[in-house]
Design a protein that fits this description.
- With 100 residues, the protein is an all-alpha fold.
- 43% of the residues lie in helices and 0% in strands.
- The chain has helices at 2-30, 32-39, 83-88.
Length: 100
């Protein structure tokens, strides 16, 4: 009987600490800027090395994101003889009715 009460007490204490920790973490993350200001700390630091160069690590093979001619427009809908439909069901390419 004594062992059961011990485990009951340890379990409830652990559960209470878990709840307090989870709520505290969420509050600290939501108020991180206020906490950093109060403590006088910064989370980021920009270091200038003096060299000005290209900062793009991975070049896109599709062109610039803002360029409207970089990629062709997507089709509005697939027709019954589209490559997607024919790949999924080869018999769809020969049908006269749309694929299901």
């Amino acid at each position: 009987m004594k062992r059961s009460k011990l485990w009951s007490g340890l379990t409830s204490t652990s559960a209470a600490l878990l709840v307090v920790g989870l709520i505290g973490q969420n509050l600290a993350a939501a108020n991180a800027s206020y906490i950093n200001t109060a403590l006088g700390t910064t989370t980021t630091k920009v270091v200038q090395t003096g060299e000005v160069g290209d900062t793009t690590y991975f070049k896109s093979q599709f062109g610039d994101f803002d360029d409207p001619d970089a990629q062709p427009p997507l089709p509005l809908r697939w027709n019954r003889t589209s490559t997607r439909c024919a790949r999924v069901r080869p018999c769809c390419a020969t049908r006269t009715t749309p694929c299901r």
